[in-house]
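Supplementary Methods, section 5.1.

A reviewer requested that the exact input to the structure prediction be made available. We therefore reproduce it here, unchanged from the version used in the analyses.
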Amino acid sequence: MNLRYLLNCTSIIFITNGWAQECITQITEEASMSAVQEQKQTISQTPEELCLHKFRQGDDAIRSKCMAGYNAPAEINVGKDVNFYSDVSYTFWFIHEHGLLIATNAVLDGVKAYLSPSTNQFFLPYKYHSGFKVGVGLVASNEWNIHAEYTWVRATTANSADAPMSPTLTAGTATATSGTSVWSFSDWLVQSTSSGQPLSASSISASWHLSTDILDLTAGRPFYQGQSLTVSPYLGLRGIWIRQMMSIKATEAPGMFVGDPGLPVGSAPAQPITSTSLSNCWGVGPIIGCNIDYLLGYGFRVESDIAGSLPYTRYTTISRKEDRASTSFNPGPYFGGASDLSEVRPMAQAGLGLGWGWYTPQQGFHIDFTASYDFLYFWNQNVFRLIVGNALAGSASISNDMFFHGLTIKSRFDF
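The structure derived from this sequence is encoded token-by-token as follows.
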């Protein structure tokens, strides 16, 4: 009984051992065949098949599988023949224009105004303003990127102040002169007193309004310069519309006019007197630029942009209106300006920032975010100041450029 049991157990062990060895051998052979097949498949794949998402060529995860590409396409690719995308940006830009000095403090001694050795100047307080951009685009065959973008910029700034008060001012003579502290205008008010003195005011309020719209249509093809550097030159057409208005209200100082001491009732116009200047223009011209990105890995990159444009610009309205300063000999109000003035006004822009992009798990969409600090420069846009300067002196030597700079936060969605 015990011998039969022992023989049965021995047989079972031998049979089981042989079956186990057979299973192990079969599994090993199948794994080897699978590895060889996968290796053959990998060898047969082209670099393009290994790097389906070309824009990620510099990422650490696939850097070893992608050869360094020179002039290889570098646009975001979501695996379709034609890819579409949209983008929206929030802008927080500082808006400034040269040539908007309004007045300088002085002392009115009798009917003559003298500048003080210690002067204050009346400027408008420039500041940051919110705006936006919206764009749409497509990535066509051979990775050509066609993009349309609209930029909306609005700015309003205002200031008001009484003339700095002081009982005694040194007013350009060897002796101290007592007089009334006033604001002495620059050329925003072209009228003067009968003795040739510029108008003076005991208080001033001023405001400046700007509306700027920019429409760009560009085409370019991004490409690699190595594994991590991408370059995207582009060329296109830019349209621009700029509207400006400067409004100044001044309360005249008494005693400015010879023959009108103290501006008696009947000769002083209603206070305050107002000067309003307008400038409206549109422009169209070529734009050329280049985006340069350095891929840092994990979807991050350093992003930069530089561009310039040379639009033909037509000023449809350049006008100014100024109330009369005295009813005794100034007929007023005064009008001036020009219309249909044609110029070429160059523009330049640059920016530097940090971006991050991510493909969805299904790899059919791409989401991208960028934060950059941008600069835009517009030459000779203060045209109403140029008109006044030319009327008074025959030429205007002051700088009249306009510029924006500030933060831009952009999101893009490819589908």
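Residues 1-44 form one domain. These observations are discussed further in the main text.
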